[in-house]
Amino acid sequence: MKIAVIGGTGWLGPYVVQELVASGHQVTVFNRGLSQGQLPAAVRRLQGDRHDVSLLTEAFRGCDAVVDPHPANAEDTRAAVEACRAARVSRLVAVVCAESYFAAIAEGLEDPELIPASELAPTRELGTDNPHDGRDEGGRVHARPLVEAELRAAGASAGLATTILRLPVLYGPHDPVALDYRFFIRRLLDGRGRLLLGGGACLLGHRLYIEDAAHGVALAVASSAPGSQLFNVAEECVYTLEQRFHAYGRVLGVETDVLRVPDLALPEHLSQFYTRGQHHVLDTTRARTLLGYVERHSPEERLRRTVEWVRQHPPAFDADWEAEYALEDDVAAQLAAPQEEESADDAEEETR
What are the Cα distances from residue 128, in Å, to 105, 114, 115, 148? Predict the structure, then answer.
């Protein structure tokens, strides 16, 4: 098949391109040319603005499918849809963030039957308080519900089938955000096996290894399933934050311990990430049944590869690690003090 990939040089894009080329597809990437990326030599490169429909149309002409690994707003999606139709492309595969599920559940639609969330679970409305909403420098709204609305409308009309892949938070080599390094791996590499967690410690949160995400995209491109489709793609193994920390500890051979603290007592550098009020779990049955999606590595191997990458390429964070550790130690000491006093009082009472 001939496949066009919009972007293709960010984080997920190169993995998708490499997966498609390895599967025998002819791949064209279309982007602004600001980053070359590590792409196979056989890949055809074209440059232009993704909002220029005429340039997109020329890039897509002769292609069987188009992949959009990161449609950030409705304008992105409308341009891609229009160009696909003009170039007579039969399928558009787009990757969106599964965040669109969870805020809807948090807004009062709690129902045990919605966990794990299937493709039919209710999605949040635009305008809810969500960190993924906002505007870029051009004033365009970044909102996943708008992207999905455009894709669903396109897929409902004749001439173009759309496949939407909903993915959870990604992790693995080349991660530009490196959350796992920031909150788990770095402290373990520093020999600190203790982590302070708030009320979200026991909540499950789906993740997806970057290579498996690309594999899911390639399967969607090659799928013979008719019409427009929607798939959740996530790992079969789902951890709580506490379990994930312990799992990284086992990979690194560091004994780990989690100290539960009230959310309000968490140091700011931890509270920014670790406070959440609901499970983030997806039902991936459709992707596994209809696409044949399976992970390629064990949970331990995925974490090991992630650790090895950051060991060789330590992410640059503007953080005073020792000062953060000192704050955590202060909180732990403050929480331990009343318990120690109570134990002393009990011991004194027993001696009377």
Answer: 12, 19, 21, 16
- pLDDT tens digits, 263-307: 889 998 888 665 556 788 999 999 999 999 999 999 999 999 999
Q: Rounded to an integer, what distance in angstroms lies between the CA atom of residue 149 and that of residue 158? A: 16
Gyration radius of the chain's alpha carbons:
23
Average pLDDT, integer, range 166-182: 94
Which tokens in the block code for residue 117? 């969330």
pLDDT value of residue 135: 47
- Average pLDDT (133-146) is 53
- Give the chain's mean pLDDT: 87
Residue 72, pLDDT score = 84
Report the predicted TM-score, pTM, of the whole model to 2 decimal places: 0.89
Q: Which tens digits make up the pLDDT trace of 295-343? A: 999 999 999 999 999 999 999 888 899 999 999 999 999 998 766 555 5
Q: What's the burial of 145, exposed, middle or buried (CB within 10 Å: 0-12/13-18/19+)? A: buried
The 3-class SS string of the chain reads CEEEEECCCCCHHHHHHHHHHHCCCEEEEEECCCCCCCCCCCCEEEECCCCCHHHHHHHHCCCCEEEECCCCCHHHHHHHHHHHHHCCCCEEEEEEECHHHHHHHHCCCCCHHHCCECCCCCCCCCCCCCCCCEECCCCCEECHHHHHHHHHHHHHCCCCEEEEEEECEEECCCCCCCHHHHHHHHHHHCCCCEEEECHHHHCEECEEEHHHHHHHHHHHHHCCCCCCEEEECCCCCCEEHHHHHHHHHHHHCCCCEEEECCHHHCCHHHHHHHCCCCCECECCHHHHHHHCCCCCCCHHHHHHHHHHHHHHCCCCCCCCHHHHHHHHHHHHHHHHHHHHHHHHHHHHHHHC
Cα–Cα dist 65/219, whole Å:
12
